[in-house]
Amino acid sequence: MLPKRLSIEVSDVPELHQALNKANANHHTDIILHEGTYQLDNTLDVAGSHITLRSQSGNPKTVVLLGKGMQPTKGVNNIIRVSGSHFILDGITLAESGNHLVQIAGEQNADYPTLRNCILKDAYEQLVKVSYNQNTGIASDFGRIENCHFSYSAGIGPQYYIGGIDVHGGQDWIVTDNTFFGIASPGKKVAEHAIHFWTETKNITIENNTIVNCDRGIGFGMPNRPNFGGTINQNLILHGDRDHPNADTGIALEESRGTQVTNNRIYFKHDYPNAIEYRFKQTKNVFIANNWVNKGIVSRNGGQAELRDNRAITHLKDLLSADEYQRWAKYLN
Asked: Which percentage of the chain shows pLDDT scores above 90?
């Protein structure tokens, strides 16, 4: 028999903390947030399993969790930290944190996290961070992030050490149907990717996401921190903002083996020459096919891939549907 599931409704910060304390003890709890802005002075520490935080209406604009501000901090300043498994965040806006909006503690085996229908904006570091134990390899697996909007309200970040989704060590994650906007560095160093999986990540699926005016789009792996397998499919990556000093490639495979990069559309107005890069000799058994791009698809530092049926395009209208053009063209002038 399944454990009895609690449902707790809250309408202010003290009630939210009380409900979370009860949920951590009970596990299997839905915490339902009434409409309003919740100004938080302390991190919401989700330690129990099968805990859901969701808005009553399902509309993320009606419930806002605010941190202490998008600014440097001497301590750890996250809005939500998750160490329990099967966590769900649904229909909520998170904004203004000194570190991350959400940190998932993979080192505590926080498997099966789900973020959906949320707005995540304006963190001083990566918006969503997934850590892991580099000694044991314990990580957060089977995560899902869908239908969320990641952004910096100013159209550019506060510093270079920012990113959208940054995952170490996870396996079998799915990132789908999300939008990323303005994840870009104002300084001399490039920002991290809108979506980045690295350090022994495996079997990751990234599909149907839209990435606009971000320094780097999607990354698998980094030197000495490889990725294995996975699919990057049907994503739209656009960049037209020449005020971003570090605009870089759309899709980067760096020590990523056995990965498929298919059916993506990439259009840049900035001067970086490559849309897709496969880099380093450890990157091999890669398949890159049916991508439409206006920049190069290039091997660097000995990367190996099979290229098939990729298409070079010239005009933005060749790449976008009428609805997409109406929505995104204004950001590319």
From this structure: 95
CB atoms within 10 A of CB 182: 24
The DSSP result for 51-69, as a single string, is EEEEESSS-GGGEEEE-S-
- Decide: 286 and 278 in contact? Cβ < 8 Å: yes
Mean pLDDT of 236-259: 94
Is this prediction's pTM over 0.90? yes
Q: Answer yes or no: are the C-beta atoms of 147 and 89 closer than 8 Å.
A: no
SS3 assignment, position 286: strand
Contact 121, 154 (CB under 8 A): no
Compute the average pLDDT of residues 167-175. 98
Cβ distance 32 to 8 under 8 Å?
A: yes
Question: How far is the C-alpha of 111 from the C-alpha of 107, rounded, in Å?
Answer: 10
Separation of CA 145 from chain center: 8
